[in-house]
């Protein structure tokens, strides 16, 4: 009965289409096949993802699975595609299935605290992956230095435009990272703003990191400033893409420096073409490998020793921060292409 009810819930929440895992396929027939709990010897990790609707998260999913499997663990992946209630429901399912540990990429920094609470009641530890879950007693947080991401963006753009009108296109306000990226940008720009050299003429969050929202913001910014804008910093490459589309329509693409983040293929191609100035490259394989190793150790009950901590509003959470890399047309070759993040053919020969 419980599973029939769960099936109804899943169907109504769109779960069956958003869930994507070979290991979780049995969920498509929950009434006939009840998932077995994890066996004692193989560590099973539940990977609860915000979304698989953006390029970077495919890499995260594949690299994380690969890294965990190379350590002998199994991974069950579920992606909620931006739906908070669904992400909690999926995490509950993973807990019910008996995973040994949960790795969570939160869509909503606050709403996912419920997942941590439920996991802990079941004796399961939780690692916050790339994005911080706020106001919950999470066991570990691993990410890139997100404030530094914003600093790298602002340093690159300010060196080209030391004085002028800037537009800031932010990410999703519900994502803790979006706040850190913005903080980093303003750490660098504030002295120039205080001197009156730089004016922020437009500054807005882009709901759900949607490029369409970024496009609308950029159009508004151009209209409100009679197209007199000198620089654009966008919180990631998808939003930079939206902003560049609006610049293209105004005949300004390639005329105004634009910063993004993630080294998405489309963005790297724009850098090669000259319509985007820079991106911030985060080698995802390192993040995936660090989290996989940590997950296996935590699930096995190993003591992690003394570590750095970050306050997430409720607890001092052990964390590991990885360094991001600033990339423009000059160092594309020795960073993104050298690492095989994208091939030379993909970037230049289209
Ligand atoms: C990630 C970025 C990503 C953005 C949108 C952020 O939390 O750190 O790499 O572009 O989410 O998915």
SSE string, helix = H, strand = E?
A: HHEHEHEHEEHEHEHEHEHEHEEEHH
Low-confidence stretches: 1-38
- Mean pLDDT across the residues is 90
Tell me the distance between the termini: 54 Å
Percent helix: 40-55%
Portion in beta strands: 15-25%
Q: What is the global morphology?
A: globular
Largest sheet, described in full? Answer: 7 strands, mixed
- Structural class call reads alpha/beta
Bound molecules: beta-D-glucopyranose
Please state the CA-atom Rg, rounded to the nearest Å. 21 Å
Characterize the structure shown:
This protein has 350 residues and is of the alpha/beta class. It is built from 13 helices and 13 strands. It has helices spanning 2-12, 15-18, 55-70, 84-96, 113-121, 146-160, 176-195, 211-224, 237-249, 265-273, 284-299, 333-337, 344-348; strands spanning 44-49, 74-79, 101-104, 125-129, 140-144, 164-169, 198-204, 231-234, 258-259, 278-281, 309-311, 316-322, 325-328. Helix 3 packs across helix 11, helix 4 (84-96) runs parallel beside helix 5 (113-121) and helix 6 packs parallel to helix 7. It is globular. It starts with a helix and ends with a helix. Beta-D-glucopyranose binds next to loops.
What features would you highlight for this structure?
350 residues; four-stranded parallel β-sheet; 13 helices; binds beta-D-glucopyranose; 13 strands; alpha/beta; seven-stranded mixed β-sheet
Please give a quick description of this structure.
By secondary structure, the protein is α/β, with parallel strands linked by helices.
């Amino acid at each position: 009965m419980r599973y029939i009810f769960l099936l109804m819930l899943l169907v109504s929440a769109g779960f069956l289409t958003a869930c994507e895992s070979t290991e979780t396929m049995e969920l498509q027939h929950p009434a006939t096949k009840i998932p077995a709990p994890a066996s004692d010897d193989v560590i099973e990790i539940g990977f609860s993802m915000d979304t698989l609707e953006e390029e970077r998260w495919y890499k995260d999913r594949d690299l994380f699975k690969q890294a965990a499997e190379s350590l002998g663990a199994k991974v069950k992946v579920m992606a909620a595609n931006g739906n908070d209630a669904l992400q909690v429901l999926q995490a509950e399912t993973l807990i019910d299935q008996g995973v040994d540990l949960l790795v969570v990429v939160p869509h909503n920094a606050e709403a996912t605290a419920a997942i941590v609470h439920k996991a802990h009641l079941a004796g399961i530890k939780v690692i916050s992956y790339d994005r911080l879950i706020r106001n919950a007693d999470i066991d570990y947080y691993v990410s890139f230095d997100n404030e530094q991401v914003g600093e790298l963006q602002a340093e690159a753009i300010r060196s080209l435009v030391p004085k002028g009108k800037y537009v800031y296109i932010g990410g999703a306000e519900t994502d803790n990272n979006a706040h850190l990226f913005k903080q980093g940008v303003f750490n660098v720009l504030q002295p120039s703003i205080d001197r009156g050299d730089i004016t922020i003429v437009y500054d807005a969050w882009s709901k759900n990191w949607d490029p369409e929202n970024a496009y609308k913001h950029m159009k508004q910014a151009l209209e409100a400033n009679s197209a007199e804008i000198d620089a654009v910093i966008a919180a990631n490459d998808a939003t930079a893409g939206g902003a560049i589309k609006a610049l293209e329509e105004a005949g300004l693409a390639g005329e105004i420096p634009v910063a993004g983040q993630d080294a998405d293929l489309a963005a790297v191609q724009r850098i090669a073409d000259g319509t985007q100035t820079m991106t911030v490259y985060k080698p995802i394989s390192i993040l995936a490998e660090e989290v996989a190793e940590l997950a296996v150790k935590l699930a096995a009950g190993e003591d992690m020793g003394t570590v750095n901590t970050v306050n997430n509003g409720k607890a001092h959470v052990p964390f590991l921060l990885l360094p991001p890399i600033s990339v423009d047309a000059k160092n594309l070759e020795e960073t993104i292409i050298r690492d095989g993040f994208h091939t030379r053919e993909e970037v230049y020969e289209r």
